[in-house]
Amino acid sequence: MSSQDIPEENLPAEQDTPHGAVSVADEKNPFADPGLPPHEHRIQDIDERAARRSERVVALLFTVSMLATLAFIASYVAIPHDKSIFVFPVGHLSAQNFALGLTLGTALFCIGAGAVHWARTLMSDVEVADERHPIEASPEVRAKVHADFKQGAKESAIGRRKLIRNTMFGALTLVPLSGLMLLRDLGPLPGNSLRHTLWSKGKLLVNMNTNEPLRPSDVAVGSLTFAKPEGLEETDEEFQTEIAKAALMIVRLQPDNIKDKRELEWSHEGIVAYSKICTHVGCPISLYEQQTHHVLCPCHQSTFDLSDGARVIFGPAGHALPQLRIGVNDEGYLEALGDFEEPVGPAFWERG
Prior knowledge:
The chain is an alpha+beta fold.
């Protein structure tokens, strides 16, 4: 349908915006400005029913964008990261990545498609020629900019087309949530995992070198032995994660040389068990001075006194090494009597 088929009284009034001066080409001015062609009205300019149909299409696109954003969030939470699906002809893909890409792409596409359809069918498409003006913003220019903005806002019908306005605001509000959800990929939430290790009541102390359970007789006075929890094997997928919290060093002292009362109560015949993980930046402690009962972290020289609750006597470590309470089971093997009572590892108190 063209404007020639519509009675003149039904056509929208022409705007007062100047279309530029029209000149005729001659010998002195061979490149005259021919002016703008006559404006052709769209069906939406003439028929309000068509305009309402376009409004509903735009609102539908914005609504689909909102639903796709919610589906993005649901996919991130509900789909396991290790699940895969077969997609022809690509092949096997991560189900979560496929769902995230599909939903986020749909959300962004629908916002763009809705904005384009809105601009092409409902916003004013009258071509306007404007003369170049000086760069400085004179009062007249500022007044014109404000007037043009108000006119553009009026022609966009954002005030009158409330359905479009509300659904657009909804879509633009929900899309940023996709970015917030991706922040979770900075790392898994630790929960209370920092407060617990594999040690528990009845777990045997296993020698890291021989992979055999330890008896008190296996630990000589003045020796340093490294141990791990029973059941933890180097072939386990989570071995590095678990040993980083559960690694243990065992030293046998003369009971009379133990100064800390709790350390003596948690030991067995002078055998004390402390976390091997330095409380500074998490380096494994491996140097033991037999005469002073000091252990030294090789990374930054933090020094701990194992005869006095493993307190810090030198270096940047912030607090003492956690002690593991140990005993002997009915078969004569050393066993844990519980987990560490305080978290192991570096700077825990700063991590909260």
